Amino acid sequence: MAPKIERLTESYGLGEGPHWDVTTQSLYFLDCLGQDLVKYNPTTKKITKASAAPKQPTFIIPVQGKKNQFIISLDKELAIVSWDGESDKFTIVEKLCVADESPETADNKFNDGKCDSSGRLWAGTLNIDKEDEDKTLPLGTLYSFDAKRQLKGQVRQVRLTNGLAFNDKTKKMFYIDTLKGSVDQFDFDVTNGVITNRRVWFTLAKNNVPGKPDGMTIDTDGNLWVAVFEGARVIKVDGHKAETLLDTIQMPAQQVTSVAFGGPNLDELYVTSASFQYKGRTPPPPENGALYRITGTGSKGLPANNFKLN
Q1: Sheet containing 182-189, strands listed edge to edge, beginning at the edge strand earlier in sequence
Q2: What are the φ and ψ backbone dihedral angles of 205, each rounded to 5 degrees?
Q3: Is the pLDDT of residue 1 over 80?
Q4: What is the pLDDT of residue 310?
Q5: Closest by alpha carbon to 38, among 7, 72, 67?
Q6: What backbone phi and psi angles, to 5 degrees, belong to 236?
Q7: Distance CA 273, CA 259 (A)
């Protein structure tokens, strides 16, 4: 049976960073251009938002053991915030750090972020060329930030940092720099937070996949699910055999941005999308920019890792 695709919301400018919270059985994500934290409750279908304006949030991850607390990005800052998921405002509990403070990276901002199984945050910065994304300079860095409040540059000269996924069984980390057009793999020492031996794992062009790789998640079989921006699809990539495309799900939205497994059994794939002007074209709402849920993929995800802070 073919997977079923449901549109759950109206259109956002840039839906991003979906994170399924097992505790509340709800999905947190962002409208980056709207500068909002967003919560979707699938039981009630209620959507709530809290504004981060004038700063831009790009990820929201619960803090382990702290009710209603999250680590979020605010432009190039990392902060712990308190949000009850109902009100339209949040409060900053603690500002943790600021990245990229040199003159040439003054305009950098964080983009995608996720935590590994130790509770360590991985998040990258970028400075997109707004006139022509393909001319974006490699001014970004993929960072890790741990419970000791240590911000560590892990990968330098990144152009457009994006999807992250971790496989503890095989000790691998997967990572997307969107403008490379590939999913890359690292050997990963989760205990010490060390990545080595970067290699290209899956190249979209080689596999005749149009568009650019964006957000990503991993299933219980170790396979990768990748959102394809400007490709109107989500692809399933073999996590054990390089350059192997396993499946393609065509989406109603052109600008597919990220994916996360959720639901009571973690077998529902939530998909965010965008509807902003890109290379002279703005894809129309309501299909573009909506949040989607895909059921019937035959795959299940892992519980999303929360952030741990001493």
Answers
A1: 161-167, 172-177, 182-189, 194-203
A2: -60, -40
A3: no
A4: 78
A5: 72
A6: -105, 120
A7: 9
The amino acid that residue 83 corresponds to is W
Nearest-angstrom CA–CA distance, 285 and 306: 32
Q: Where are the domains of the chain?
A: 4-295
pLDDT (tens digit per residue) in 124-146: 999 999 888 899 999 999 999 99
Separation in Å, CA 302 to CA 212, 237, 243, 246: 25, 16, 23, 19
* Whole-angstrom distance, CA of residue 272 vs CA of residue 257: 6
What is the three-state SS of the chain? CCCEEEECCCCCCEEEEEEEECCCCEEEEEECCCCEEEEEECCCCEEEEEECCCCCCCCEEEECCCCCEEEEEECCEEEEEECCCCCCCCEEEEEEEECCCCHHHCCCEEEEEEECCCCCEEEEEECCCCCCHHHCCCCEEEEEECCCCCEEEEEEEECEEEEEEEECCCCEEEEEEHHHCEEEEEEEECCCCEEEEEEEEEECHHHCCCCEEEEEEEECCCCEEEEEECCCEEEEECCCCCCCEEEEEECCCCEEEEEEEECCCCCEEEEEEECCCECCECCCCCCCCCCEEEECCCCCECCCCCECCC
Please check whether residue 259 is in contact with residue 237, taking contact to mean a CB–CB distance below 8 angstroms. Answer: no
Structure tokens at 277: 């002007």
From CA 69, how far away is CA 62, in angstroms rounded? 6
Q: In this structure, which amino acid lies at residue 170? A: T
Q: Which contacts qualify for 98-104: CB closer than 8 Å, 24 or more apart? A: 99/125, 99/141, 99/143, 99/151, 100/76, 100/125, 100/139, 100/140, 100/141, 104/139
Q: Which residue do the tokens 């935590």 mark? A: 115
Note the pLDDT tens digit of each residue in 98-131: 999 899 999 999 999 999 999 999 999 999 998 8
Q: Classify 4-295 by CATH class.
A: mainly beta
